[in-house]
Inverse folding.
């Protein structure tokens, strides 16, 4: 079953072959950023709509500002990739330059960002589908959860195959978007009316046009930039020369994203498109430019697919980042291990579960997630750029002055945008992120300090290891009756120790007498001790008995053997071993005590 | 924590003192039947409402028919109590006279009935509260779940205390209901108008008055009888003379129930009360008779409390019945054991969980549960009466002719009512019960046959027990590093066996070489075997290794020792032992293999 869904196991040595070429890398790492044109322009319009339709003319300048920001961040990240070709991106850069706490803050921001990417892009992908087929709008939450589940499965199969599966839709999306924008601009220049009337009532003025509102609209538009980091974080997955390939792919991505973003902003303004529930702005735009024909459906399909591929970006990077944190012992060790298919299974499953919960909570509504989105991402940008700035200053490598200027501007701009987003979106949800981030950092540090304490405790001084023979372990077998299981447990106990006692706890002295008769009848030579339990408890008498022999016992641990019935079917467990479970739980924290489950396999 | 909520443990010998006097027994066992006046008359009116307000005049004849049925069933059960003073009621009677299958069918009917009682009475109790305080209507599901949870806790404390806690509200309910009916009848005779106008629009005719509709209304009214069985099932809880006390209490109950039921039917018809959402018929009635004053709130409060006490009836009897089935090995053994406080903890918790689920599914709506309710209860009545009929015929004890006539009539009448309820309520949910009952019987028989098979497998022939010494168990310790845990595990393994091998699985040969160096550095004489795992799996190499030594091994089991880190806090578990868990799961079903968790307790 597992192999059908996940595929055959792959050897570790196969890791090198899983590296990917530029065209595939664009599909895996850039889909997040590029696909954001499916919702980012809409988010700008949503904020401007508060100031009435007239304010929509402001969407173009805001889009230009976002594109300028993309250029600055891209240029800054170009340098990061060359200096940190092993990948790790922000987390590694911040760790190197500012230490643990800052790196964990940056790492937490990114991890939250990936979880939000998984949720936002899934919800937006489903919105593309339900815009084309409004009948599905009522089951959008179910559609989103099923999509996320399928993407989790795909990713458990491994990264190379995902790139193969998803490369096509990215390029279909990019080229059909370019075609749509081209047609739209041509029609605009020619002065042609919309192919299909996009019915939109002028919106009422709820808030006056203010600087704060414009900044909020800009902050919403910044959600377009959430994927930029992915490329720098994933350099290790590129084919050689890794850094160069990553930089080229990054530049492609920035150009494509800017073109689509600006094109959409121009057309949306020209066609007077208003955001409305049940249909995305992109869908309205496509209907206005090309009408509800085959091309419209191709574009909606490609939009949905590239958005699911953006989810895949998160699946490519969240587990990798989690593995970096786990390698530094800030997360449980199981995040390090690659599963049978070389994918970081634990991280993938964790992302699937967290993203799914988020979708459930917001009922797959993109607008509710956007305010949470940008603040964490820009915080990590700021850390990354500041880290590079400090690195240039410290190392003074060739070209350090120019590098310092570029990353200094990058740090300044992204830092200001972080503040801007935190302030303008604070009451809409950004406060949650500001609460969650320190909690994450504390959690990660707690995990690390736990592992450190354990390591210190387990450290062995050379002279402490004994090789001499020890006295036999005092061994107690707990029995309820004389039967085949008892016989086998007695046999086994005798191979382990020469000091064996059988113990029977009961509140029924008649039954105890019968047991003692059987003991004689079967000629069992092992000593039988019967404990009366007036409170019907099995656990307390056993603990009291152990306390009484403890004083006699040497340093060798006391061994307690329980008969564990192993039925053929898992659901038969509920019919057995309840007493054993209670005993084991009670003895778990008792020092110098070892509990053995001696299995009796039923036919 | 457990002791604060549940109380100090009680000794088994205290069981006899937990028996209860008649006045308390009425509170514990009769509250179910008596409290049904809070919903049964309303259910009759709800069906009649389909035929329009004019049909309401028929509610009185139907109520009289229900009272006649109460008389017949009560008189029949009187005989059952005298013949089966050890309690056990229907299940025991049916087992004695018709064998396993019929007894399990009757037992299943009763158990379903108790679960439904828990849900219906909780929902009705909450409805009494929300009728008085309509603002709480929107949180009725939460209120119901919290009430059920509190009742579960109370019952885990033990039956005597519950009787003490609940005796007062029963009597307050009975006397305030009698007072309210008395005032109402007096006002009716005097020709006085309602104190408070109970606004009710005449209902439209949805279905014509038909015999089928009348029978359906009667079937709904039969939900009043669901508690009658409880007394016979619980004879063992009465003070001596048990049977006589139980019969007297049963008769009290029947008289009180009939009086309240008829009185309510007369008044509801006189005041033209119509069932409506958000307020119970009883609440409307009380407002009409005494107005929304202190007495009204007293009555609503007492109604809510006696309904919660009815839930308690289910908590008194479901676990007891489950313990009878478990004693006959039709349910898991843990249903037999009394907890620290002498209550059947497993049964109580099971009832709390199942009742809570039911409340969640129907959103605490009484009307949705009623159709499921009566069919199972009357099926068990029929089995009980038929069983008594057969018993008179077989044993021919003194007075057998008279007994046979009484129980024969009882069997005939309850059998007819069972059919009637099954047919008239079939499409409203009774079909579910008809599907569930055979499934329960199959489940119970499956459990019994599992226990029988296990017993047969474990049976030990006298000559098979060996007392001779055996060769040492081949012992394998799995290690990841050389540290204090490793040192202690090595020590312990050497006390158990003279044939110890240390095993290390890795995909990193550098780390393996370092481990071997440490082995030398610490002068460890135990043999170290390193297994390379190209697929990074820990489990498969260990399994393969075990297969390879299996051929050499004698009949003595192979022992595998794992180091289990026991952290101080339970939530730290997620940071440890993931590998151990995987190994243990893989080895659980392997024959001739014993896995030992050797605990290392962290400070």
């Amino acid at each position: 079953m597992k192999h059908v869904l996940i595929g055959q196991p792959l050897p570790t040595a196969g890791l090198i072959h899983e590296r990917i070429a530029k065209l595939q890398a664009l599909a895996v790492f850039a889909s997040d950023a590029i696909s954001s044109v499916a919702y980012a322009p809409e988010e700008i319009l949503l904020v401007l709509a508060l100031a009435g339709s007239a304010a929509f003319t402001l969407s173009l300048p805001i889009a230009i500002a976002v594109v300028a920001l993309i250029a600055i961040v891209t240029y800054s990240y170009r340098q990061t990739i060359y200096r940190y070709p092993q990948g790790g991106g922000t987390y590694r850069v911040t760790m190197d330059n500012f230490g643990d706490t800052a790196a964990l803050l940056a790492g937490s921001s990114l991890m939250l960002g990936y979880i939000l990417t998984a949720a936002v892009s899934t919800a937006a992908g489903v919105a593309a589908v339900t815009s084309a087929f409004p009948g599905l709008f009522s089951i959008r939450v179910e559609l989103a959860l099923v999509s996320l589940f399928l993407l989790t499965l795909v990713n458990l199969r491994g990264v190379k195959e995902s790139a193969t599966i998803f490369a096509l839709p990215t390029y279909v999306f990019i080229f059909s978007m370019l075609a749509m924008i081209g047609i739209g601009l041509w029609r605009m220049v020619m002065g042609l009316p919309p192919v299909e009337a996009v019915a939109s009532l002028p919106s009422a003025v709820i808030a006056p046009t203010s600087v704060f509102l414009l900044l909020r609209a800009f902050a919403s538009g910044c959600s377009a930039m959430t994927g930029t980091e992915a490329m720098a974080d994933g350099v290790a997955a590129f084919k050689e020369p890794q850094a160069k390939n990553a930089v080229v792919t990054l530049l492609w991505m920035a150009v494509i994203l800017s073109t689509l973003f600006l094109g959409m902003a121009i057309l949306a303004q020209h066609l007077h498109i208003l955001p409305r529930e049940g249909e995305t702005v992109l869908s309205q735009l496509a209907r206005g430019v090309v009408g509800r024909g085959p091309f419209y459906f191709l574009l909606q399909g490609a939009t949905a697919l590239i958005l699911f591929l953006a989810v895949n970006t998160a699946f490519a990077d969240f587990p990798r980042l989690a593995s970096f944190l786990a390698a530094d012992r800030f997360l449980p060790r199981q995040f390090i291990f690659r599963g049978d298919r070389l994918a970081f299974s634990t991280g993938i499953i964790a992302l699937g579960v967290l993203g799914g919960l988020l979708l459930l909570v917001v009922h797959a509504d993109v607008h509710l997630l956007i305010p949470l989105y940008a603040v964490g991402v820009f915080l990590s940008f700021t850390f990354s750029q500041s880290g590079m700035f400090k690195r240039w200053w410290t190392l003074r490598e060739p070209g350090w002055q120019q590098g310092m200027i570029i990353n200094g501007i990058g740090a300044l701009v992204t830092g200001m945008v972080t503040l801007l987003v935190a302030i303008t979106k604070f009451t809409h949800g950004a406060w949650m992120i500001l609460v969650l981030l320190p909690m994450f950092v504390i959690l990660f540090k707690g995990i690390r300090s736990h592992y450190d304490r354990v390591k210190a405790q387990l450290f062995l001084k050379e002279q402490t290891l004994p090789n001499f023979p020890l006295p036999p372990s005092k061994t107690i077998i707990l029995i309820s009756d004389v039967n085949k299981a008892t016989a086998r447990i007695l046999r086994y106990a005798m191979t382990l120790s020469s000091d064996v006692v059988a113990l029977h706890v009961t509140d029924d002295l008649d039954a105890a007498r019968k047991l003692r008769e059987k003991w004689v009848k079967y000629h069992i030579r092992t000593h039988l001790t019967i404990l009366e339990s007036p409170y019907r408890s099995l656990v307390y008498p056993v603990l009291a008995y152990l306390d009484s022999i403890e004083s006699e016992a040497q340093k060798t641990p006391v061994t307690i053997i329980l008969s564990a019935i192993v039925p053929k079917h898992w659901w038969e467990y509920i019919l057995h071993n309840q007493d054993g479970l209670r005993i084991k739980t009670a003895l778990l924290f008792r020092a110098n005590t070892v509990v053995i489950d001696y299995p009796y396999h039923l036919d």
Notes: Chain B touches chain A through 79 residues (CB under 8 Å). Residues 2-9+17-451 of chain B form a domain with the Amino acid/polyamine transporter I fold (CATH 1.20.1740.10).
